[in-house]
Amino acid sequence: MDRITQLRAERAALHDQMEALVASLDDDGGMSAEQSADFEAMRVKDDKLKEQIDVLEDIERRKAEQARPVGIIPTPAQPAAGASVPATPAVQGLTFARMTRYLAAGSGNVFVATQIAEANGDSGLFANQNMGSGGAGGFLVPEDVSAEIIELLRPRSVVRAMGPRVIPLPNGNLTTNRRATGATFGYVGEQQDVAASGMTFGQMKLSAKKFAGLVPISNDLLRSASTSVDMLVRDDIVEGAASSEDLYFLRGPGTENAPLGLRNQLIGSAFASLNVLTMTASPDLQKIDNDLGRLELAMMNQSIDPSAAHWVMSPRSAMYLTNLRDGNGNKVYPEMSAGQLRMKPVKVTNQIPSNLGGGTESEIGLIHPSHVVIGEQGGIAIAMSTEAAYKDSNGTMQAAFSRDETLMRLIMHHDIGLRHLPAVAWLTGVTWGV
Prior knowledge:
The chain is of the alpha+beta class.
């Protein structure tokens, strides 16, 4: 599946190149010989990528028909000396978790980790893998293994779950055109000049930001070789990464080291006054419905169909809309119980605060995912320590050595951008449910 994701990303990047080439044409729309040759080459490459994707998807479908349900995978016992052990059934992300566990047990030494893996029946785990080092001396997880974890982030991260475009950043940077305004048309009389018009473009710049996290793992767990432990290690990593990604993808400050969140990408643009709205004071049923409609209208005014957009909101706002009733006791938005609002999916996350504006305000976003781009560079680099200190969720300093833990550090590189700014509309000052 990771190969399919890679090919889809290559195809999406190719489509952007084709779009940029067409956008760069003169007003007459004609292509030079060189441009025509470039476009034909890209078209042929796109057809080949589509054929490869179709073949791989057909293989995945055939494999799925023979797959065993995850729920009946037995917990493997420790192998006897010299006994051969059947390969662990393929469950997404477990290869990464097993490599992480063995590397932790080997104190980060790949050779020692390989020996431990072989002793536990995983003799082929590190075979034919790229044993490169991460930028800070850690182990650079092979890209095909890293892709499994990144793919698992999709359902856990509300932004990734919307289905944004994901493209590679091979050099860590990407600058591409962003549509600002469209061409205009009108009627003219005979022998009258046609007014010149056309699309204007801004720029979307993606620059890979270092995304790092610490995951403490009990050494008692690391000593246990079982699928359930691998799943625990995998889930701890995925859940922590997804939550932190949403924090920055939605409301990141856009500093030198952090992405500019989707909500803040509107600030300072021509759409700040059009798409960043404020809740109507003294809300009642009609005002609440109107405010939701105002977000949809903000997109429609910029020729964006909001029907494919997604809502994102805090748990407080979601629960208020779920329980909201009219004067007859009927639920105003009964579809909220099914994760829908005004026929659009709802994403609920604690990364939308409910303590803004003096401690009582929240925000609600409406995001059209087809205009959202996530750029990713490389795989995942991991390093470990049994002596390092870290702060827990309460801000208390803990020592891995005294707690008999191994502290895992994971590093990824990515950024997020908008190909069309008004694809995001935001309602601020929301006090629903206070």
